């Protein structure tokens, strides 16, 4: 259990979503579970900071103005970042199946997210980084 706490305290989860209420709710949930969290209102904001280099797990909306979550993920891979990613979306029926062709993709989750599933996927992502 102590090791789990150390992992949570030393690894950063980035949340990228254009919906302020989603960012705030996820940030509150994850901080209450002991995680370090950084939030970004767009894919471009995330890319234009040191976020990619600091992030150990990425939670990203898929449909955002400017650059989608899929485009963000593709850009990160092109830049050499293979950040374990959990996509969230309000339109789960439009999702392609999970593919091994997409490096570091952990899961797709519908909005609102099932808290237990999200936390389990985050633990999976962080263990890949450890």
Automatic annotation (TrEMBL):
<dbReference type="InterPro" id="IPR001789">
    <property type="entry name" value="Sig_transdc_resp-reg_receiver"/>
</dbReference>
<feature type="modified residue" description="4-aspartylphosphate">
    <location>
        <position position="61"/>
    </location>
</feature>
<protein>
    <submittedName>
        <fullName>Response regulator</fullName>
    </submittedName>
</protein>
<dbReference type="InterPro" id="IPR050595">
    <property type="entry name" value="Bact_response_regulator"/>
</dbReference>
<keyword id="KW-0597">Phosphoprotein</keyword>
<feature type="domain" description="Response regulatory">
    <location>
        <begin position="12"/>
        <end position="126"/>
    </location>
</feature>
<dbReference type="Pfam" id="PF00072">
    <property type="entry name" value="Response_reg"/>
</dbReference>
């Amino acid at each position: 259990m102590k090791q789990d706490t150390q992992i949570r305290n030393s690894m950063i989860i980035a949340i990228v979503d254009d919906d302020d209420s989603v960012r705030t709710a996820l940030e509150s949930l994850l901080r209450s579970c002991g995680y370090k969290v950084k939030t970004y209102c767009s894919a471009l904001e995330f890319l234009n900071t040191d976020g990619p280099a600091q992030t150990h797990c990425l939670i990203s909306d898929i449909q955002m103005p400017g650059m989608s979550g899929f485009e963000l993920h593709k850009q990160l891979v092109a830049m050499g970042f293979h950040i374990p990613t959990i996509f969230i979306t309000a339109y789960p029926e439009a999702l392609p199946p999970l593919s091994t062709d997409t490096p570091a993709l952990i899961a797709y989750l519908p909005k609102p997210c099932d808290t237990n599933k999200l936390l389990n996927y985050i633990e999976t992502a962080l263990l890949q980084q450890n």
